[in-house]
Write a structure and sequence with these properties.
alpha+beta, 3-stranded antiparallel sheet, single chain, 5-stranded antiparallel sheet, 301 residues, globular
Length: 301
């Protein structure tokens, strides 16, 4: 495997332009590019590498293969400059202001990618399941959601943590549930949030991401409507639990991603951007992942 990586920021999309509703991007299988990494070729089967139009503006994808040298430069700049906001380990930080402050210290092309308005700047699940194995899109959605959440619980248990799926008491109408980890008798959100399947979130399409051959599938995370796919199943947020435990070593995010995706069937991919941030108990949590790639699957890429 070539020593390269896809790396980009995960600032919330600052979408601009007129509120013009654009037709959805039609995703067709893309040919394999021999000059690109395997991770990039997987991403190329989705909207992540394609032009993204919002309103009257079209954004080019910031996704690319980064060399290990470029990653090390970004890592060095970040750990050298993050200073007093660093909390507990690495660059997991608790901030009260704008997350861009953490990005700015990196500089160069990495920082430029971090502020991209392209939809590839957000983590997501990319999942494809064979259509002929399900009676309906509703059944496919239920399978995807349950498979990810149940295996997340098993993975956390294997790592020595009690976790369970809990309901959002503030919104029972949509059946919102999420995974929570028990830390010192406190249930700490771990992400993987879901709503009740409706049969409208999984989209039909052709893909090679199940076993390498073109198959008709139900998919999520392939197109430009990231909110629809995230409403079915959100990505993990490992930051909250790590801070509550005061140590990254107790619940390493990378090890969790690898262990979880190793349990999942073919066609399940977790796309994680290096710069992550989220709000919890009125604080902003940020994390920079030191990863040579950011697509996790049953077989490590």
């Amino acid at each position: 495997m070539r020593l390269s990586s896809m790396i980009l920021g995960t600032l919330s999309l600052a979408l601009v332009g007129c509120a013009v509703k654009n037709p959805p991007i039609k995703i067709e299988p893309a040919p394999y590019q021999v000059d690109k990494s395997k991770a990039y070729n997987i991403a190329a089967q989705t909207v992540l590498t394609r032009p993204y139009k919002y309103g009257l503006t079209t954004y080019q994808s910031p996704l690319k293969d980064f060399t290990q040298e470029e990653i090390e430069e970004a890592k060095t700049a970040l750990t050298r400059n993050v200073g007093g906001v660093s909390k507990f380990f690495g660059v997991l930080s608790i901030m009260t202001g704008n997350f861009t402050g953490l990005i700015d210290v990196v500089g160069g092309s990495v920082a430029g990618m971090a502020t991209s308005d392209h939809i590839a700047s957000q983590s997501r699940w990319i999942v494809a399941v064979e259509k002929n194995k399900f009676k309906s899109a509703f059944d496919a959605e239920s399978y995807i959601k349950n498979t990810i959440q149940e295996n997340a619980i098993k993975t956390l248990f294997d790592m020595g943590f009690d976790a369970k799926i809990v309901s959002n008491r503030e919104d029972t109408r949509h059946g919102i549930k999420f995974v929570a980890v028990d830390i010192n008798k406190k249930l700490v959100p771990y992400g993987l949030t879901s709503v009740s399947p409706t049969g409208t979130k999984a989209k039909e399409g052709l893909t090679t991401l199940i076993d390498g051959t073109v198959k008709q599938a139900y998919t999520i995370g392939f197109n430009d409507n990231i909110e629809i796919s995230k409403h079915l199943i959100g990505n993990p947020f490992t930051m909250f639990a790590a801070v509550e435990m005061k140590s990254a070593n107790q619940l390493d995010s990378t090890k969790f991603y690898q262990a979880l995706t190793a349990k999942l069937p073919q066609g399940f991919y977790l796309y994680v951007v290096p710069f992550e941030h989220a709000n919890y108990e009125s604080k902003i949590y940020g994390h920079f992942h030191y990863r040579p790639y950011n697509l996790h699957s049953r077989k490590e890429i």
